[in-house]
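Sat 14:20. Reprocessing the chain from the morning session after the first attempt stalled halfway. Input below, unchanged.
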Amino acid sequence: MRVPRTLSLLFVAALGACDNPKPVVVLNGYGNVLWCRQPTVPSSHQDTCLSEARDFEVDIATQVAVDPECKGVLFVSYAGPNEQNNKTVLDAMLSPHWTLNLNFRPGAQKQHWSVLRTADPGDLAFAQGDDGPTDIAKKVCAIAKQRGGAIVN
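Finished this time. Tokens:
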């Protein structure tokens, strides 16, 4: 008699998990590639720009990984069109998610960032700030997990 009850509890738990999908954040690293390669950035500085941008992105990812408030958030980095064969990135981008964009400026300790929720076309939400990697991770995780107020734009 306990086996069916146990199975039914597992089934109910599984259904509950389906109602609360894992929050997903996709870092648009490709935007930094495009920005660092634009004609307004001198060609002699483009590689340095890209290297600094990647370091900043890794710093954000590291903060997401170590911050207990980010537990349960799937953080994925999109590096560009070559990601078309990366199932994790594709699945994340095809699911409802938050896209994290950086307006990277070489040498700046704080970077301008924005997140845009992509779910239903009529359900858009947007937030932004100017922060370092630690604060970007904390704020983006809180937004993705809906820890603060609701955002409706």
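The two ends are 52 Å apart (CA to CA).
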